[in-house]
TrEMBL record:
This is NudC domain-containing protein 1. The keyword Nucleus applies. One of its GO terms (cellular component) is nucleus. Keywords: Cytoplasm, Nucleus. It comes from Sinocyclocheilus anshuiensis. Its main location: cytoplasm. Residues 278-367 form the CS domain.
Length: 587
Protein backbone atom coordinates (compact mmCIF):
# COMPACT_ATOMS: atom_id res chain seq x y z
CA UNK A 1 0.00 0.00 0.00
CA UNK A 2 1.49 3.35 -0.98
CA UNK A 3 1.32 6.19 1.50
CA UNK A 4 -0.10 9.58 0.53
CA UNK A 5 2.94 11.81 0.11
CA UNK A 6 2.35 15.23 1.63
CA UNK A 7 4.39 18.39 1.59
CA UNK A 8 5.20 21.15 4.02
CA UNK A 9 3.70 24.24 2.37
CA UNK A 10 5.77 27.29 3.18
CA UNK A 11 3.84 30.50 3.72
CA UNK A 12 5.79 32.98 1.59
CA UNK A 13 4.29 35.89 3.51
CA UNK A 14 6.20 34.74 6.59
CA UNK A 15 9.58 34.90 4.80
CA UNK A 16 11.75 38.01 4.75
CA UNK A 17 13.87 38.09 1.55
CA UNK A 18 15.43 41.40 2.61
CA UNK A 19 16.80 40.04 5.90
CA UNK A 20 20.54 40.70 6.12
CA UNK A 21 21.96 39.52 9.44
CA UNK A 22 21.77 39.76 13.20
CA UNK A 23 23.51 42.70 14.82
CA UNK A 24 25.25 42.00 18.12
CA UNK A 25 23.72 44.10 20.88
CA UNK A 26 25.72 44.89 24.01
CA UNK A 27 22.58 45.60 26.03
CA UNK A 28 22.81 43.59 29.23
CA UNK A 29 20.16 40.99 30.04
CA UNK A 30 19.05 41.05 33.69
CA UNK A 31 19.80 37.65 35.25
CA UNK A 32 18.44 36.37 38.56
CA UNK A 33 19.71 33.31 40.41
CA UNK A 34 17.85 30.89 42.67
CA UNK A 35 20.09 28.55 44.67
CA UNK A 36 18.53 25.11 45.10
CA UNK A 37 18.28 23.34 48.48
CA UNK A 38 19.10 20.02 46.84
CA UNK A 39 20.70 19.17 43.50
CA UNK A 40 18.63 18.34 40.43
CA UNK A 41 17.95 14.60 40.09
CA UNK A 42 20.36 14.11 37.20
CA UNK A 43 20.96 10.50 36.11
CA UNK A 44 24.19 10.16 34.15
CA UNK A 45 24.58 7.61 31.38
CA UNK A 46 26.14 4.29 32.39
CA UNK A 47 28.70 2.26 30.43
CA UNK A 48 25.89 0.06 29.07
CA UNK A 49 24.12 3.13 27.64
CA UNK A 50 26.70 3.83 24.97
CA UNK A 51 24.73 4.45 21.77
CA UNK A 52 23.85 7.74 20.12
CA UNK A 53 20.19 6.97 20.86
CA UNK A 54 20.93 6.80 24.60
CA UNK A 55 22.60 10.21 24.38
CA UNK A 56 19.69 11.74 22.44
CA UNK A 57 16.97 10.28 24.67
CA UNK A 58 18.57 10.55 28.12
CA UNK A 59 21.89 12.43 27.90
CA UNK A 60 20.22 15.43 26.21
CA UNK A 61 17.04 15.22 28.32
CA UNK A 62 15.56 18.59 29.31
CA UNK A 63 15.11 18.39 33.11
CA UNK A 64 13.12 21.64 33.21
CA UNK A 65 9.40 21.63 32.35
CA UNK A 66 7.35 24.71 31.54
CA UNK A 67 3.63 25.05 32.23
CA UNK A 68 1.85 26.07 28.99
CA UNK A 69 -1.34 26.88 30.92
CA UNK A 70 0.23 29.26 33.46
CA UNK A 71 2.83 31.75 32.27
CA UNK A 72 6.32 31.91 33.81
CA UNK A 73 5.86 28.72 35.84
CA UNK A 74 8.45 25.91 35.65
CA UNK A 75 8.91 22.50 37.31
CA UNK A 76 11.79 20.11 37.97
CA UNK A 77 12.58 17.07 40.16
CA UNK A 78 15.39 17.22 42.74
CA UNK A 79 17.56 14.50 44.27
CA UNK A 80 15.23 14.24 47.29
CA UNK A 81 12.45 12.99 45.01
CA UNK A 82 10.49 16.26 45.16
CA UNK A 83 8.63 17.86 42.26
CA UNK A 84 9.40 21.56 42.72
CA UNK A 85 7.74 24.60 41.15
CA UNK A 86 8.97 28.16 40.65
CA UNK A 87 6.38 30.70 39.49
CA UNK A 88 7.70 34.19 38.73
CA UNK A 89 5.64 37.30 39.35
CA UNK A 90 8.43 39.69 40.32
CA UNK A 91 11.99 38.97 39.18
CA UNK A 92 13.62 40.75 42.12
CA UNK A 93 11.68 38.62 44.64
CA UNK A 94 11.80 35.09 43.26
CA UNK A 95 11.57 33.13 46.50
CA UNK A 96 12.28 29.42 46.87
CA UNK A 97 10.75 26.67 44.70
CA UNK A 98 7.65 25.08 46.27
CA UNK A 99 7.22 21.33 46.76
CA UNK A 100 4.24 19.99 44.79
CA UNK A 101 4.74 16.25 45.22
CA UNK A 102 7.27 13.82 46.68
CA UNK A 103 7.99 10.30 45.43
CA UNK A 104 7.15 7.56 47.92
CA UNK A 105 10.33 5.97 49.26
CA UNK A 106 10.75 2.74 47.35
CA UNK A 107 14.32 1.40 47.42
CA UNK A 108 13.40 -1.56 45.22
CA UNK A 109 13.93 -0.59 41.62
CA UNK A 110 13.06 -2.77 38.68
CA UNK A 111 15.69 -4.75 36.85
CA UNK A 112 17.75 -2.98 34.24
CA UNK A 113 18.87 0.62 33.99
CA UNK A 114 17.28 3.38 36.04
CA UNK A 115 16.50 6.51 34.05
CA UNK A 116 15.91 10.13 34.99
CA UNK A 117 12.54 11.10 36.45
CA UNK A 118 10.31 12.70 33.82
CA UNK A 119 7.28 14.98 34.04
CA UNK A 120 4.58 15.93 31.54
CA UNK A 121 1.90 18.51 32.30
CA UNK A 122 -1.19 16.84 30.89
CA UNK A 123 -3.81 19.57 31.28
CA UNK A 124 -4.51 22.64 33.43
CA UNK A 125 -5.35 20.31 36.33
CA UNK A 126 -3.45 17.04 35.69
CA UNK A 127 0.15 15.85 35.32
CA UNK A 128 1.95 12.59 34.43
CA UNK A 129 5.10 11.58 36.32
CA UNK A 130 7.67 8.79 35.96
CA UNK A 131 10.20 7.92 38.67
CA UNK A 132 12.64 6.45 36.13
CA UNK A 133 12.16 2.85 37.30
CA UNK A 134 9.12 1.93 35.17
CA UNK A 135 6.31 3.33 37.33
CA UNK A 136 3.75 5.78 35.95
CA UNK A 137 1.91 8.14 38.32
CA UNK A 138 -1.00 10.34 37.23
CA UNK A 139 -1.61 13.33 39.51
CA UNK A 140 -4.54 15.66 40.03
CA UNK A 141 -2.92 19.06 40.48
CA UNK A 142 -5.96 21.36 40.82
CA UNK A 143 -5.63 24.66 38.91
CA UNK A 144 -1.92 25.15 39.36
CA UNK A 145 -1.82 28.91 38.79
CA UNK A 146 -4.55 29.66 41.34
CA UNK A 147 -3.60 27.06 43.97
CA UNK A 148 0.16 26.65 43.74
CA UNK A 149 0.26 25.87 47.48
CA UNK A 150 -1.91 22.75 47.16
CA UNK A 151 -0.02 19.44 46.99
CA UNK A 152 -0.69 17.21 44.02
CA UNK A 153 -2.87 14.14 44.59
CA UNK A 154 -1.91 10.78 42.99
CA UNK A 155 -4.95 9.19 41.27
CA UNK A 156 -3.18 6.34 39.43
CA UNK A 157 0.03 4.40 40.11
CA UNK A 158 1.19 1.37 38.16
CA UNK A 159 4.38 -0.33 37.02
CA UNK A 160 4.41 -0.61 33.23
CA UNK A 161 7.48 -2.72 32.56
CA UNK A 162 10.99 -1.53 31.72
CA UNK A 163 12.06 2.03 32.65
CA UNK A 164 10.85 4.82 30.38
CA UNK A 165 10.63 8.57 30.04
CA UNK A 166 7.38 10.39 29.30
CA UNK A 167 7.45 12.09 25.89
CA UNK A 168 3.95 13.61 25.82
CA UNK A 169 0.58 13.40 27.53
CA UNK A 170 -2.86 14.97 27.23
CA UNK A 171 -6.33 14.64 28.74
CA UNK A 172 -9.84 14.73 27.26
CA UNK A 173 -13.40 14.02 28.37
CA UNK A 174 -15.99 12.12 26.35
CA UNK A 175 -19.37 10.86 27.60
CA UNK A 176 -18.42 11.78 31.19
CA UNK A 177 -15.32 9.57 31.01
CA UNK A 178 -12.03 11.31 31.83
CA UNK A 179 -9.25 9.91 29.63
CA UNK A 180 -5.50 10.52 29.77
CA UNK A 181 -3.23 9.62 26.84
CA UNK A 182 0.46 9.09 27.69
CA UNK A 183 3.37 8.45 25.31
CA UNK A 184 6.37 6.57 26.76
CA UNK A 185 9.85 6.17 25.25
CA UNK A 186 12.23 3.27 25.85
CA UNK A 187 15.62 2.26 24.44
CA UNK A 188 15.74 -1.54 24.73
CA UNK A 189 18.23 -4.27 23.95
CA UNK A 190 17.32 -6.04 20.72
CA UNK A 191 19.05 -9.42 20.18
CA UNK A 192 17.69 -9.58 16.63
CA UNK A 193 19.62 -6.43 15.69
CA UNK A 194 22.97 -8.05 14.87
CA UNK A 195 24.13 -5.50 12.29
CA UNK A 196 23.19 -2.31 14.15
CA UNK A 197 23.71 -1.00 17.67
CA UNK A 198 21.97 -3.95 19.32
CA UNK A 199 19.17 -1.68 20.60
CA UNK A 200 15.72 -0.75 19.34
CA UNK A 201 13.46 2.16 20.20
CA UNK A 202 9.89 1.73 21.39
CA UNK A 203 7.11 4.27 21.75
CA UNK A 204 4.23 2.99 23.89
CA UNK A 205 0.93 4.82 23.68
CA UNK A 206 -1.08 4.17 26.84
CA UNK A 207 -4.71 5.15 27.45
CA UNK A 208 -5.87 5.49 31.06
CA UNK A 209 -9.45 6.39 32.02
CA UNK A 210 -12.00 6.19 34.84
CA UNK A 211 -14.66 4.20 32.96
CA UNK A 212 -14.59 1.35 35.52
CA UNK A 213 -17.95 1.14 37.30
CA UNK A 214 -18.25 2.35 40.90
CA UNK A 215 -21.07 3.20 43.24
CA UNK A 216 -22.99 6.43 42.75
CA UNK A 217 -21.26 8.23 45.62
CA UNK A 218 -17.80 6.75 45.07
CA UNK A 219 -15.11 8.27 42.90
CA UNK A 220 -14.42 6.15 39.84
CA UNK A 221 -10.97 4.56 39.75
CA UNK A 222 -8.49 5.02 36.94
CA UNK A 223 -7.08 2.04 35.05
CA UNK A 224 -5.18 1.19 31.86
CA UNK A 225 -7.66 0.65 29.02
CA UNK A 226 -5.35 0.23 26.03
CA UNK A 227 -1.64 -0.21 25.27
CA UNK A 228 -0.25 0.26 21.76
CA UNK A 229 3.42 -0.36 20.94
CA UNK A 230 5.48 1.22 18.14
CA UNK A 231 9.00 0.14 17.18
CA UNK A 232 11.76 2.00 15.37
CA UNK A 233 15.53 2.18 14.99
CA UNK A 234 16.20 5.79 16.04
CA UNK A 235 15.05 8.01 18.89
CA UNK A 236 12.30 10.24 17.47
CA UNK A 237 12.96 13.95 17.15
CA UNK A 238 9.27 14.55 17.87
CA UNK A 239 6.38 12.39 19.08
CA UNK A 240 2.98 13.60 20.29
CA UNK A 241 -0.62 12.39 20.60
CA UNK A 242 -3.35 14.35 18.83
CA UNK A 243 -6.16 16.02 20.80
CA UNK A 244 -8.92 13.56 21.74
CA UNK A 245 -6.41 10.75 21.10
CA UNK A 246 -7.38 10.55 17.40
CA UNK A 247 -3.85 9.85 16.18
CA UNK A 248 -0.15 10.24 16.75
CA UNK A 249 2.58 12.20 14.94
CA UNK A 250 6.20 11.01 14.86
CA UNK A 251 9.26 12.62 13.27
CA UNK A 252 12.36 10.42 13.13
CA UNK A 253 15.42 9.57 11.05
CA UNK A 254 14.18 5.98 10.65
CA UNK A 255 10.48 5.12 10.32
CA UNK A 256 8.30 3.78 13.14
CA UNK A 257 5.46 1.26 12.87
CA UNK A 258 2.91 -0.18 15.27
CA UNK A 259 3.79 -3.75 16.23
CA UNK A 260 1.37 -4.80 18.98
CA UNK A 261 -1.81 -3.85 20.83
CA UNK A 262 -2.42 -4.91 24.44
CA UNK A 263 0.48 -7.35 24.22
CA UNK A 264 -0.76 -9.08 21.06
CA UNK A 265 1.22 -8.69 17.80
CA UNK A 266 -0.58 -7.07 14.90
CA UNK A 267 -1.61 -9.60 12.24
CA UNK A 268 -0.31 -7.52 9.37
CA UNK A 269 3.28 -6.25 9.61
CA UNK A 270 2.90 -2.52 9.02
CA UNK A 271 6.51 -2.20 7.85
CA UNK A 272 5.35 -3.25 4.38
CA UNK A 273 3.06 -0.23 4.25
CA UNK A 274 6.03 2.08 4.60
CA UNK A 275 7.59 1.24 1.25
CA UNK A 276 6.69 4.49 -0.45
CA UNK A 277 8.95 4.39 -3.46
CA UNK A 278 8.35 0.86 -4.85
CA UNK A 279 5.30 1.61 -7.03
CA UNK A 280 5.75 2.03 -10.79
CA UNK A 281 5.67 5.61 -12.10
CA UNK A 282 2.25 6.77 -13.23
CA UNK A 283 3.70 9.31 -15.66
CA UNK A 284 6.88 10.04 -17.61
CA UNK A 285 8.08 13.52 -18.47
CA UNK A 286 10.63 15.33 -20.60
CA UNK A 287 11.53 18.98 -21.03
CA UNK A 288 13.30 21.51 -23.19
CA UNK A 289 14.12 25.11 -22.39
CA UNK A 290 10.67 26.11 -23.71
CA UNK A 291 8.25 23.38 -22.60
CA UNK A 292 7.51 20.29 -20.48
CA UNK A 293 5.81 17.17 -21.88
CA UNK A 294 4.06 14.57 -19.70
CA UNK A 295 2.70 11.16 -20.65
CA UNK A 296 0.20 9.97 -18.02
CA UNK A 297 -0.91 6.33 -17.95
CA UNK A 298 -4.70 5.98 -18.28
CA UNK A 299 -7.07 3.18 -17.19
CA UNK A 300 -8.11 0.88 -20.01
CA UNK A 301 -11.13 2.11 -21.98
CA UNK A 302 -10.71 5.78 -21.09
CA UNK A 303 -12.22 8.18 -23.64
CA UNK A 304 -11.79 11.90 -24.23
CA UNK A 305 -15.10 12.59 -22.48
CA UNK A 306 -13.82 10.93 -19.28
CA UNK A 307 -10.89 13.34 -18.90
CA UNK A 308 -11.30 16.16 -16.36
CA UNK A 309 -8.44 18.57 -17.09
CA UNK A 310 -7.81 21.80 -15.20
CA UNK A 311 -4.72 23.96 -15.73
CA UNK A 312 -3.88 27.31 -14.17
CA UNK A 313 -0.69 29.36 -14.21
CA UNK A 314 0.82 27.52 -11.24
CA UNK A 315 -1.23 24.33 -10.72
CA UNK A 316 -2.42 21.25 -12.63
CA UNK A 317 -5.27 18.82 -11.96
CA UNK A 318 -6.03 15.69 -14.04
CA UNK A 319 -8.68 13.12 -13.19
CA UNK A 320 -10.63 10.39 -14.98
CA UNK A 321 -14.38 10.51 -14.38
CA UNK A 322 -15.25 10.65 -10.68
CA UNK A 323 -12.09 8.81 -9.59
CA UNK A 324 -9.37 10.35 -7.43
CA UNK A 325 -7.13 12.78 -9.35
CA UNK A 326 -4.14 11.27 -11.17
CA UNK A 327 -2.28 14.57 -10.87
CA UNK A 328 -3.13 17.38 -8.50
CA UNK A 329 -0.83 20.05 -7.11
CA UNK A 330 1.35 23.08 -7.53
CA UNK A 331 3.62 23.20 -10.58
CA UNK A 332 7.37 23.65 -10.22
CA UNK A 333 7.19 26.96 -12.11
CA UNK A 334 4.52 29.09 -13.85
CA UNK A 335 3.21 28.07 -17.30
CA UNK A 336 1.12 29.66 -20.03
CA UNK A 337 -2.28 27.86 -19.90
CA UNK A 338 -3.43 29.17 -23.28
CA UNK A 339 -0.34 27.82 -25.09
CA UNK A 340 -0.52 24.43 -23.34
CA UNK A 341 -2.42 21.43 -24.78
CA UNK A 342 -3.45 17.86 -24.02
CA UNK A 343 -4.41 14.85 -26.16
CA UNK A 344 -5.02 11.09 -25.79
CA UNK A 345 -2.41 8.86 -27.48
CA UNK A 346 -3.15 5.26 -28.53
CA UNK A 347 -6.06 5.09 -26.04
CA UNK A 348 -3.44 4.33 -23.37
CA UNK A 349 -1.92 7.60 -22.23
CA UNK A 350 -2.66 11.28 -21.88
CA UNK A 351 -0.02 13.56 -23.38
CA UNK A 352 0.15 17.01 -21.77
CA UNK A 353 2.32 19.77 -23.21
CA UNK A 354 3.03 22.66 -20.83
CA UNK A 355 4.47 25.90 -22.19
CA UNK A 356 6.93 27.42 -19.73
CA UNK A 357 6.29 31.06 -18.94
CA UNK A 358 10.05 31.65 -18.45
CA UNK A 359 12.31 30.00 -21.02
CA UNK A 360 15.65 28.57 -19.96
CA UNK A 361 15.58 27.23 -16.36
CA UNK A 362 15.13 23.46 -16.16
CA UNK A 363 12.57 21.95 -13.79
CA UNK A 364 13.61 19.40 -11.16
CA UNK A 365 10.03 18.07 -10.88
CA UNK A 366 6.65 18.73 -12.48
CA UNK A 367 4.41 18.90 -9.40
CA UNK A 368 5.97 19.85 -6.10
CA UNK A 369 6.57 16.85 -3.78
CA UNK A 370 4.99 14.42 -6.31
CA UNK A 371 7.52 11.62 -6.79
CA UNK A 372 5.30 9.31 -8.86
CA UNK A 373 6.77 10.45 -12.18
CA UNK A 374 9.97 9.45 -13.97
CA UNK A 375 12.12 11.99 -15.79
CA UNK A 376 13.43 10.96 -19.22
CA UNK A 377 16.53 12.89 -20.23
CA UNK A 378 17.38 13.39 -23.91
CA UNK A 379 20.81 12.39 -25.32
CA UNK A 380 21.71 16.04 -25.82
CA UNK A 381 20.88 16.84 -22.19
CA UNK A 382 22.92 13.86 -20.97
CA UNK A 383 25.92 15.05 -22.97
CA UNK A 384 25.65 18.59 -21.58
CA UNK A 385 25.38 17.27 -18.04
CA UNK A 386 28.47 15.09 -18.43
CA UNK A 387 30.49 18.07 -19.68
CA UNK A 388 29.41 20.21 -16.73
CA UNK A 389 30.36 17.52 -14.19
CA UNK A 390 33.54 16.28 -15.86
CA UNK A 391 35.80 18.17 -13.45
CA UNK A 392 34.29 16.18 -10.55
CA UNK A 393 35.18 12.82 -12.09
CA UNK A 394 38.65 13.60 -13.46
CA UNK A 395 41.62 11.51 -12.32
CA UNK A 396 43.56 14.73 -11.63
CA UNK A 397 42.88 16.68 -8.45
CA UNK A 398 42.24 19.85 -10.44
CA UNK A 399 42.64 19.25 -14.19
CA UNK A 400 41.96 22.88 -15.09
CA UNK A 401 42.93 25.32 -12.31
CA UNK A 402 41.80 28.27 -14.43
CA UNK A 403 38.18 27.14 -14.08
CA UNK A 404 35.95 29.16 -11.77
CA UNK A 405 34.77 26.10 -9.85
CA UNK A 406 37.51 24.08 -8.10
CA UNK A 407 36.84 20.46 -7.12
CA UNK A 408 34.82 19.84 -4.00
CA UNK A 409 36.95 19.43 -0.86
CA UNK A 410 35.09 17.46 1.82
CA UNK A 411 37.44 18.81 4.49
CA UNK A 412 36.13 22.32 3.85
CA UNK A 413 32.52 21.35 4.52
CA UNK A 414 31.02 22.90 7.65
CA UNK A 415 28.53 21.35 10.06
CA UNK A 416 25.77 23.33 8.42
CA UNK A 417 26.47 21.47 5.15
CA UNK A 418 26.09 18.01 6.70
CA UNK A 419 22.85 16.05 6.77
CA UNK A 420 21.94 12.71 8.39
CA UNK A 421 22.61 9.55 6.39
CA UNK A 422 19.00 8.46 6.67
CA UNK A 423 16.19 10.50 5.18
CA UNK A 424 14.07 11.71 8.10
CA UNK A 425 10.31 11.38 7.85
CA UNK A 426 7.34 13.05 9.50
CA UNK A 427 4.41 10.62 9.80
CA UNK A 428 0.88 10.82 11.09
CA UNK A 429 -0.80 7.57 12.26
CA UNK A 430 -4.54 7.09 12.68
CA UNK A 431 -5.51 6.18 16.24
CA UNK A 432 -8.17 3.65 15.19
CA UNK A 433 -6.45 1.78 12.35
CA UNK A 434 -2.86 2.40 13.58
CA UNK A 435 -1.95 2.91 9.91
CA UNK A 436 0.01 5.88 8.57
CA UNK A 437 -2.24 8.43 6.87
CA UNK A 438 0.28 11.17 6.00
CA UNK A 439 4.01 11.09 5.38
CA UNK A 440 6.47 13.88 4.62
CA UNK A 441 10.07 13.24 3.64
CA UNK A 442 12.03 15.84 5.61
CA UNK A 443 15.15 15.30 3.50
CA UNK A 444 17.59 18.07 4.35
CA UNK A 445 15.16 19.84 6.70
CA UNK A 446 17.13 19.37 9.92
CA UNK A 447 14.99 19.10 13.07
CA UNK A 448 15.85 21.90 15.53
CA UNK A 449 13.42 21.83 18.47
CA UNK A 450 9.81 21.45 19.60
CA UNK A 451 7.84 23.93 21.71
CA UNK A 452 4.35 24.39 23.17
CA UNK A 453 2.75 27.45 21.56
CA UNK A 454 -0.90 26.85 22.48
CA UNK A 455 -1.77 24.37 25.27
CA UNK A 456 -4.97 23.36 23.45
CA UNK A 457 -2.93 22.13 20.47
CA UNK A 458 -0.08 19.71 19.87
CA UNK A 459 3.49 20.95 20.39
CA UNK A 460 4.89 22.85 17.41
CA UNK A 461 8.23 21.88 15.87
CA UNK A 462 10.98 23.88 14.18
CA UNK A 463 12.81 22.70 11.03
CA UNK A 464 15.70 24.14 9.10
CA UNK A 465 14.76 25.23 5.56
CA UNK A 466 17.91 26.35 3.77
CA UNK A 467 19.30 29.04 6.11
CA UNK A 468 16.00 29.82 7.84
CA UNK A 469 14.29 28.08 10.74
CA UNK A 470 10.56 27.55 10.14
CA UNK A 471 8.07 26.76 12.89
CA UNK A 472 5.29 24.27 12.07
CA UNK A 473 2.07 23.68 13.98
CA UNK A 474 0.30 20.31 13.54
CA UNK A 475 -3.35 20.82 12.55
CA UNK A 476 -4.78 17.26 12.44
CA UNK A 477 -8.31 18.51 11.70
CA UNK A 478 -7.22 20.15 8.43
CA UNK A 479 -7.13 17.57 5.63
CA UNK A 480 -5.06 19.66 3.22
CA UNK A 481 -2.60 21.39 5.54
CA UNK A 482 -1.95 18.95 8.36
CA UNK A 483 1.18 20.94 9.26
CA UNK A 484 0.89 24.73 9.10
CA UNK A 485 3.81 27.14 8.79
CA UNK A 486 3.20 29.67 11.61
CA UNK A 487 6.46 31.59 12.03
CA UNK A 488 9.99 32.08 10.69
CA UNK A 489 13.26 32.77 12.50
CA UNK A 490 15.49 34.38 9.91
CA UNK A 491 18.89 32.73 9.29
CA UNK A 492 18.58 30.70 12.52
CA UNK A 493 19.07 27.44 10.58
CA UNK A 494 22.51 28.61 9.52
CA UNK A 495 23.41 30.34 12.79
CA UNK A 496 22.67 27.33 15.00
CA UNK A 497 24.85 25.08 12.84
CA UNK A 498 27.92 27.09 13.87
CA UNK A 499 27.26 26.53 17.59
CA UNK A 500 29.23 23.32 18.18
CA UNK A 501 28.47 23.22 21.92
CA UNK A 502 24.73 23.81 21.53
CA UNK A 503 22.62 21.62 23.82
CA UNK A 504 19.10 23.10 23.76
CA UNK A 505 17.08 25.41 21.49
CA UNK A 506 13.66 26.99 21.96
CA UNK A 507 11.56 30.07 21.18
CA UNK A 508 9.01 32.35 22.83
CA UNK A 509 5.35 31.34 22.37
CA UNK A 510 4.69 34.73 20.73
CA UNK A 511 7.68 34.19 18.34
CA UNK A 512 9.40 37.39 19.54
CA UNK A 513 12.75 35.62 19.89
CA UNK A 514 14.53 32.29 19.55
CA UNK A 515 17.27 31.12 21.92
CA UNK A 516 20.15 28.62 21.95
CA UNK A 517 21.91 27.33 25.05
CA UNK A 518 25.34 25.72 25.18
CA UNK A 519 26.35 22.88 27.49
CA UNK A 520 28.12 25.37 29.74
CA UNK A 521 27.23 28.92 30.69
CA UNK A 522 26.41 30.74 27.42
CA UNK A 523 22.93 31.61 26.13
CA UNK A 524 22.33 33.18 22.70
CA UNK A 525 19.17 35.19 22.01
CA UNK A 526 18.03 36.05 18.46
CA UNK A 527 15.28 38.65 18.28
CA UNK A 528 12.86 39.25 15.43
CA UNK A 529 13.57 42.42 13.39
CA UNK A 530 12.25 45.56 15.08
CA UNK A 531 12.13 49.25 14.05
CA UNK A 532 15.27 51.25 14.84
CA UNK A 533 15.21 54.50 16.82
CA UNK A 534 17.85 56.22 14.70
CA UNK A 535 18.33 56.42 10.94
CA UNK A 536 20.70 53.74 9.59
CA UNK A 537 22.04 53.61 6.04
CA UNK A 538 23.25 50.54 4.11
CA UNK A 539 26.17 51.84 2.02
CA UNK A 540 26.46 48.69 -0.10
CA UNK A 541 22.87 48.74 -1.27
CA UNK A 542 22.44 52.50 -1.01
CA UNK A 543 19.25 52.36 1.03
CA UNK A 544 17.95 53.27 4.45
CA UNK A 545 17.52 50.46 6.99
CA UNK A 546 14.22 50.54 8.86
CA UNK A 547 14.54 47.37 10.96
CA UNK A 548 17.34 45.57 12.76
CA UNK A 549 17.41 42.04 14.22
CA UNK A 550 19.43 41.93 17.44
CA UNK A 551 21.56 39.11 18.81
CA UNK A 552 22.40 39.05 22.52
CA UNK A 553 24.68 36.81 24.57
CA UNK A 554 24.26 36.04 28.27
CA UNK A 555 26.95 34.40 30.41
CA UNK A 556 25.70 32.52 33.46
CA UNK A 557 27.64 32.77 36.72
CA UNK A 558 28.19 29.02 37.11
CA UNK A 559 30.55 26.20 36.12
CA UNK A 560 27.84 23.52 36.33
CA UNK A 561 26.54 22.03 33.07
CA UNK A 562 23.12 23.17 31.87
CA UNK A 563 20.38 20.56 32.49
CA UNK A 564 17.23 22.42 31.42
CA UNK A 565 16.22 25.33 29.20
CA UNK A 566 12.75 26.85 28.62
CA UNK A 567 11.32 30.11 27.28
CA UNK A 568 8.26 32.26 27.93
CA UNK A 569 7.33 35.51 26.23
CA UNK A 570 9.21 37.53 28.84
CA UNK A 571 11.80 35.20 30.36
CA UNK A 572 14.30 32.42 29.77
CA UNK A 573 14.73 29.77 32.48
CA UNK A 574 18.06 27.92 32.67
CA UNK A 575 18.51 24.99 35.07
CA UNK A 576 21.87 23.69 36.29
CA UNK A 577 22.60 21.05 38.94
CA UNK A 578 22.45 23.57 41.82
CA UNK A 579 20.86 26.73 40.42
CA UNK A 580 17.86 28.00 38.48
CA UNK A 581 18.61 31.15 36.48
CA UNK A 582 15.90 33.53 35.27
CA UNK A 583 16.83 35.85 32.36
CA UNK A 584 14.54 38.81 31.74
CA UNK A 585 14.44 38.94 27.92
CA UNK A 586 11.37 41.11 27.27
CA UNK A 587 9.64 43.71 29.43
Amino acid sequence: MALPNCSLKVNRELLDPSFESYRLSLDSIPAYNVELDAAVAEVKLKDSQYTLDHVRAFGMYNYLHIDPWYEDSVYFVDSKGRVLNLTVTLDTALGKPREMFRFESDPISCEGEQLCASLSLTSATWAALSDGTGKLTLLRTSKRGESSHIKWEPMFRERLGEPFIIVHSLAHVRSHVHTIEVLLLRVQKDPSDTKGSGFSISLEWITVDNSAGQGENEERKYGVRKRRMMKGKSVPHYAAVEPQGKGIVVASEKPFAFTEVDGLPLEEPPVEAMEVENSDPIYFWQQTEEDVTLNVRLPEGTTKDDIRFKLAVDCLRVRVGDHAPLLDGQLFAPVDPEASTWTIKDDKSLEVSLQKRSEGPLWSEVILEDRRGEYLMSDEQKSQLQQRLSYLTSEDLNPNPEKDKPPCNAQELEDCDMFPEDSSTLMRFDGATLKPTHVVSLGSHQFLFSVHIDPSEMPAFCLRHDVEALLWQPRPNQDNDVWEHISTFNALGYVQASKRDKKYATCAPNFSYAALCECLRRVFIYRQPSPVDTVLFNRKQGRQVGQVAKQQVANLDTNDPVLGFRATNERLFVLTANNLFVLKVNN
